[in-house]
Amino acid sequence: MSATTAPPSGSAAVAQLAAFAVGVRRNGLAPARAHHVARHVRDLIGITLAAAVEWEDDPVTRVTLGWGGTPQATAIGRGVRLPAANAALIGGTLAHALDFDDTHMPSVLHPSASVVPAALAAGEASRADGATFLRAIAVGDEIVCRAGMAGYDLELGNSIFFERGQHATAICGALGAAAAAALVMGLDEERVGHAISIATSFGSGLLEANRTGGTVKRAHCGWAAHSGVAAAELAAAGLTGAPTALEGRFGFLQAWCGDDAHPEALTDELGTRWEIDRLHVKPYPTNHFTHAGIDAALELRRRGLRPDDVAEVMIGVAGPVLRTIAEPPELKAAPPSGYAARFSAPFTFAAALSGGGGLGVFFEDFTDESVHDANLLELAAKVRCVADARCEAIFPYQLPAIVEARTLGGEVHLIEVLENRGGPERPLSDDELNVKFRASARRLLAPDRLDALERVLGRIDLLPDVHELAACCTPPEANAAPTIGGTR
């Protein structure tokens, strides 16, 4: 099957996106694209299961459990059934909690962490089949990416959302989550459009926690997923949104990005050119801006450089990313928590050069204990981050780094990482992706349960009901007596 042809260009953007969405649900995806989407589902599920262990007592789960409501869908990794929107809230929070989820370039947002939990929760509640589920995720991710590109400034070379301190992932994620939820719920074209339009009023998220601390960013994708499911449910019940909610005078793009927005990016070549083809899969559980520096550190390790030999390190990156991974420098050199360490170029470089497992660096390198490791802190203090003109010319289609390491003996090592591992130019193979998936999911699931989940993920498009997928994502014992942070 192939995707729908582009809808008529004369209608408002919401109507065009709705027509595109329903067309994909009806006509299906090309086999290669369906496989591509299934890879991202596998990746996202594994990350979510790992987060259920890494952030075992998260406040979002504790608060959501207290809300009650009619059980409709499984909160992945938590072993409880909740109203679909609430299950999506927990799932989306865990999906983004470890900063291990996929990234779109050049918008630099993370679509699947909002879209997959919304589609799975709404799909389980409505007994959607696996093929519809995959198509809904393709559409939802595409809408998130296109909304992000509508807020991307080519001359600036950066996201307008980002420049204004806004988290495009959460803001645009609500739109894609709404579309995906509406599709698995079986809504018609008009109500799919209303779901997207309603969601324009629901998205939110600020990035200040990236700079100075706080865990609220972990909940951004959960709230976007929750908002998307709620928007679809409200549209199904008869609530309506503005037809020009995206490009209108008081619409989404004007409100968030002002006159610098590019509304044409929402619909140009819609149905023929796919933004999701530019999605990157993360090989490391850290902010994506740190990945090229990690790769450089791993290469220096392979060359035999030891942490004790290092006199100083200079990491050149694109100027806009310094605010996230290098400023304020004293905080980045000594991050206050394992979560904050994931947003530190000095600390992630130190962790990668000092050790790490077979995956380079992994969860155990970014714990609340590891940030007090005197050896890591000593090495991180030797790392300086600067703006580099070559990196800026490539950013944000790639997130490059040029690293110069000087030894105590006077040797100079220069490493250039200009294309990110996990992106379209250097994709992870199916085997590499499965290594990441299993390393993540086995933190929660026993081997037999993990094998069963892997088999289900291998035939998503054939599932008669996505409840089968949701049921495999929780240890059997959790279903009997879920206890999170003392709440039963």
Brief overview, please?
The chain has 488 residues and is an alpha+beta fold. It has helices spanning 13-27, 31-54, 59-65, 84-97, 112-125, 130-150, 160-163, 168-184, 189-199, 208-212, 220-237, 252-257, 291-302, 322-325, 329-333, 338-341, 345-354, 374-380, 389-394, 430-441, 447-457, 467-471, 476-480, and strands spanning 73-75, 80-82, 103-104, 152-153, 158-159, 279-280, 310-317, 383-387, 401-407, 412-417.
Please give a structural write-up.
- By secondary structure, the chain is of the alpha+beta class.
- The chain is built from 23 helices and 10 strands.
- The protein has helices at residues 13-27, 31-54, 59-65, 84-97, 112-125, 130-150, 160-163, 168-184, 189-199, 208-212, 220-237, 252-257, 291-302, 322-325, 329-333, 338-341, 345-354, 374-380, 389-394, 430-441, 447-457, 467-471, 476-480, and strands at residues 73-75, 80-82, 103-104, 152-153, 158-159, 279-280, 310-317, 383-387, 401-407, 412-417.
- The strands form 4 sheets. The protein has a 4-stranded mixed sheet.
- A hairpin with a 4-residue loop joins strand 9 and strand 10 (412-417).
- Helix 1 (13-27) packs antiparallel against helix 6 and helix 13 (291-302) runs parallel beside helix 17 (345-354).
- The longest helix has 24 residues, at 31-54.
- The termini are far apart.
How is this fold's topology laid out?
Blueprint: H1 13-27, H2 31-54, H3 59-65, E1 73-75, E2 80-82, H4 84-97, E3 103-104, H5 112-125, H6 130-150, E4 152-153, E5 158-159, H7 160-163, H8 168-184, H9 189-199, H10 208-212, H11 220-237, H12 252-257, E6 279-280, H13 291-302, E7 310-317, H14 322-325, H15 329-333, H16 338-341, H17 345-354, H18 374-380, E8 383-387, H19 389-394, E9 401-407, E10 412-417, H20 430-441, H21 447-457, H22 467-471, H23 476-480
